[in-house]
């Protein structure tokens, strides 16, 4: 069996993991196709040029989805279950922006097998998304 996970007993407050990706036009088009969100502020240069942003913005959930990647593959890793997530969208992400997503352990409840994380996406030094997630780690069979 392939394993890429950290046991709940090994997880400590302050542990973190990060993921970086540059947002492309193809990412936005693919996300619009999968999600059904074809809001012109994401997919139309003409419409977006007249918006308050002045150009197209990425769907916020593209960047927020990087948290899921971190939880499922790095910390805690394979087998964990996303229980909840809050998201505060602070600034837009544009095509060509490089997003750094970071999850940091805030608390560990071994008895309930739940971990609370602070979640942040940054573009440069600017926090574009902040929030908190709760992850459940099932017992291994």
TrEMBL record:
Write down the Pfam families for this protein, in alphabetical order: MaoC_dehydratas
Domain named MaoC-like: which ranges? 14-115
InterPro entries, per the entry: Fatty_acid_synthase, HotDog_dom_sf, MaoC-like_dom, UPF0336/Enoyl-CoA_hydratase
Q: What is this protein called?
A: MaoC family dehydratase
Q: What broad taxonomic lineage does this protein's source fall under?
A: Bacteria, Pseudomonadati, Pseudomonadota, Gammaproteobacteria, Enterobacterales
């Amino acid at each position: 069996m392939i394993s890429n996970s950290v046991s709940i007993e090994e997880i400590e407050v302050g542990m973190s993991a990060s993921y970086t990706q540059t947002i492309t036009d193809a990412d936005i088009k693919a996300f619009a196709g999968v999600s059904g969100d074809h809001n012109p502020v994401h997919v139309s240069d003409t419409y977006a040029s007249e918006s308050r942003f002045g150009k197209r913005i990425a769907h916020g959930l593209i960047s927020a989805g990087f948290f899921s990647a971190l939880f499922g593959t790095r910390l805690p890793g394979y087998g964990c279950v996303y229980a909840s997530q809050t998201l505060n969208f602070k600034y837009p992400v544009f095509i060509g922006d490089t997003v750094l997503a970071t999850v940091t352990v805030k608390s560990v409840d071994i008895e309930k097998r739940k971990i609370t994380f602070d979640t942040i996406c940054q573009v440069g030094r600017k926090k574009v998304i902040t929030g908190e997630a709760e992850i459940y780690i099932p017992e291994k069979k």
